[in-house]
Sequence to fold (173 residues):
Amino acid sequence: MAVSHTDEKARALRAAGALNTHAAAVTDAAFRSHPFFDARDLVQVKYEMLRRVQIEGQSITQTTASFGFSRPVFYATQAALARGGLPALVPQRPGPRRRHKLRPEIVRFLEQVRSDEPTARLGDLAQRVEARFGVRLHPRTIERVLGPRPKSQGLPCRRGRSGPPLQTGPPLM
Fold:
């Protein structure tokens, strides 16, 4: 089965985070009548929405309705374009871009504790960080930074018991 050009473009737009998932809401005449305009291309749709208002002088209310956006989205798009040009119209991944809680002094502290006490549990490290810095960290976050706790011979297992297995019946031969 051959992959069509439109499927390839949709895949590329999705991979770039620029696929307009509400393409059916775009009712602007240009997007309905000319193949150059693709309502699935979020960057193109937003740019054309801004152009209609700024260059052609259409009202914001009318334009946002025909492009399937709200007025707040229009103003946010307008500000993004003014701030960063066309690349700013490509949607960014929501949420923090980096580990914002792990300030350098916290990482140094964790590394020092790990060096001094290699068998310290991750939960204990999280409690120490909260007590000292007022920052709550999940033990898994600490493990990602420091790596897993070194395994040591002779330490009791946390979930099981240590020592030789119990024999409950006659000895096996």
